[in-house]
User: Fold this.
Amino acid sequence: MKRCISSSRRLTTAFFATAVIAISGSVFAQSVSVDQILEADQRRLNLAQKSQERINSVVDGTRSLEDQYRATNKEVDGLKVYNRLMKAQVEGQMATLEDIGLSMDQVDVINRQIFPLMERMIDGLRQSIGLDIPFLMDERMQRVVSLEGIMERSDVSVAEKFRKVMEAYQIENEFGWTGDYYTQSLTIDGTTRSFNMLRIGRIGLYFQSDDARVTGRWDNTAREWVMDDSSRNEIRKGLRMARQLIAPELISVPVSAAEAS
Assistant:
């Protein structure tokens, strides 16, 4: 009977040990399975993050290309407008070049015509000064001599020569409606002395000494200086007005009669 009980105990102990081992193995296996699951989830998460990063990169690249495409399209549109304007400008310049070419063909003809014209204008200016009342004669004749010298210079363009001639005519024209005063040496009754000169346009040229004792005028008909004390005070007043010493006012002075045409 004791042998049976001992055997039964041994069987119970063995069964208990087997059960413990089985339970331990099951717990270990379950622990290993959870770790693997967590690791797999982490790998999937990492892969998902990397995939999202690649997607974001592709999206950013696509947006950048789209922006570049739009910017390029705008630039192309601008270039089309620019090219159209440049084409119109070039066409206009070509037309201008054709006109210039035609004008250059006529340059020689114009030069052959304008040089004789300028020569005649200078000769006419010299004659006009010679027949005019003799005011500022040195200055005016020197201007004519200078024009004649310019006509012979090859380093002066035709346009500049013509401008100089027209400028001289403009100066002479202004003398007709202006007045001024200056000093000049005159020989009166065999005596040469300095006089105050008063010019009124081209109709009158008068002289007077500083002490106003000697007064006279230019007689353009006789082409000589004559003594004339009848307008001594008026000439003196005119000189003071020309010097801006008194306010302008009317003066009464003798003038040469107009010649019949």
Observations:
- The two ends are 186 Å apart (CA to CA).
- Residues 1-5 have pLDDT under 50 and may be disordered.
